[in-house]
């Protein structure tokens, strides 16, 4: 497969699908509602665009990845890389991706039951993920998994890929900086000193500014990481999320985004209802406080997060809930700017402030 890190979006109408996270049934329901057939074709020549995080947590990641991979190969769907695909490309076992490795670790127990990928299919899946762009763009629209960060985009604009090659090159350059090496050693000492508390939610470590500074610097030091998992900054008090204490938190980068071009992202576990029953946000303060569920957000109303937390359905099923679920799979129809949910609800979005088509 050929690879390019920044790729053009085709002309014409698009349907932008939020993070699927292995929820194959939800994906099939949503596609039928949007008018697509089983090969991802639309009678009005619309095109599918996936914002990343096809896999992990849900009951059938192999089916989702294979369906999207085939439609991508046929030219009926486009996909940008998400942080969950990047985790697998980097060989990281975490956050519900045991489906790929064929066995269930201690953390994976909470996601069961889920389908396993056949071992002989792993190479094909990895080649597909490695071929994906990090950004899709055209004059009226930008699609990226987590953040539009102009400096990071510019650093990748003339790099051919594939993802793993460029990621390694960038990380080697970052870690070769002597100042970064010194800070990494100091941060490592702090982490080791408090290792006995790092994974215990009942034992909060103190504020560790050197570790926080390193975590934020490392996140921002690789543009592929920035675009797939967001902009992060140090915080004074750590918080517990994802099985460990964290010293940086995600930033609502859209509050300073003023370009006239619309940006569509996933990643951020938006709610389809103003009040969530799931409790606290997973990664620090709720980034959508004060933003109605159907509203464009950002400094000028030009950013839209289309991830409505379908990745949390495994939690709802564990609690004995049945459809309709709070976590939903969504599609943003462009240029109409209407929102479709897998359970059949359809709404116009509100407050768009970008280019008019």
Question: How would you describe the overall organization of this protein?
Answer:
The protein is α/β, with parallel strands linked by helices and 357 residues long. It has a domain of 241 residues: Metallo-dependent phosphatases (Purple Acid Phosphatase, chain A, domain 2, 4-Layer Sandwich), CATH 3.60.21. Helix content is 30%, strand content 16%. The strands form 3 sheets. A 6-stranded mixed beta sheet has the order 4-3-2-11-12-13. A 5-stranded mixed beta sheet has the order 1-5-6-9-10, with no helix packed on it. Strands 7-8 form a two-stranded antiparallel sheet. 41% of the residues are buried.
Considering the chains and any ligands shown, give keywords for the structure.
single chain, 357 residues, alpha/beta, Purple Acid Phosphatase, chain A, domain 2, 6-stranded mixed beta sheet, 11 helices, 16% strand, globular
Q: Indicate the percent of residues in helices.
A: 25-40%
Order the strands across the largest sheet as they lie in space: 4-3-2-11-12-13
**Class derived from helix and strand content:** alpha/beta
Overall number of strands: 13
Tell me the radius of gyration.
20 Å
Major sheet description: 6 strands, mixed
The general outline is globular
Strand content: 15-25%
């Amino acid at each position: 497969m050929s690879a390019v890190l920044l790729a053009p979006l085709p002309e014409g109408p698009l349907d932008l699908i939020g993070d699927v996270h292995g929820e194959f049934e939800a994906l099939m329901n949503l596609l039928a509602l949007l008018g697509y057939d089983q090969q991802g074709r639309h009678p009005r020549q619309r095109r599918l665009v996936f914002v990343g995080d096809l896999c992990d947590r849900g009951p059938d990641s192999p089916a989702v990845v294979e369906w999207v991979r085939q439609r991508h190969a046929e030219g009926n769907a486009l996909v940008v890389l998400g942080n969950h695909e990047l985790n697998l490309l980097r060989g990281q076992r975490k956050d519900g991706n045991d489906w790929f490795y064929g066995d269930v670790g201690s953390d994976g127990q909470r996601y069961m039951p889920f389908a396993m990928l056949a071992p002989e299919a792993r190479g094909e899946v990895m080649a597909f993920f490695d071929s994906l762009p990090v950004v899709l763009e055209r004059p009226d629209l930008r699609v990226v998994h987590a953040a539009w960060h102009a400096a990071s985009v510019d650093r990748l604009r003339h790099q051919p890929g594939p993802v793993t090659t460029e990621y390694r090159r960038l990380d080697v350059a970052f870690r070769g900086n002597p100042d970064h090496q010194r800070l990494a050693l100091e941060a490592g000492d702090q982490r080791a000193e408090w290792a006995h508390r790092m994974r215990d939610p009942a034992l909060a470590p103190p504020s560790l500014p050197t570790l926080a500074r390193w975590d934020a610097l490392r996140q921002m030091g690789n543009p592929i990481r920035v675009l797939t998992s967001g902009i992060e900054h140090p915080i004074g008090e750590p918080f517990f999320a994802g099985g460990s204490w964290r010293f940086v938190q995600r930033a609502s980068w859209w509050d300073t985004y003023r370009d006239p071009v619309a940006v569509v992202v996933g990643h951020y576990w938006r709610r389809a209802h103003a009040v969530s029953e799931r409790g606290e946000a997973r990664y620090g303060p709720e980034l959508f406080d004060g933003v109605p569920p159907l509203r464009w957000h950002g400094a000028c109303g030009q950013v839209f997060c289309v991830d409505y937390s379908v990745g949390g359905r495994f939690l709802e099923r564990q609690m004995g809930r049945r459809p309709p679920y709070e976590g939903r799979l969504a599609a943003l129809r462009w240029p109409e700017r209407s929102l479709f949910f897998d359970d059949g609800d359809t709404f116009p979005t509100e407050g768009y402030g970008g280019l008019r088509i």
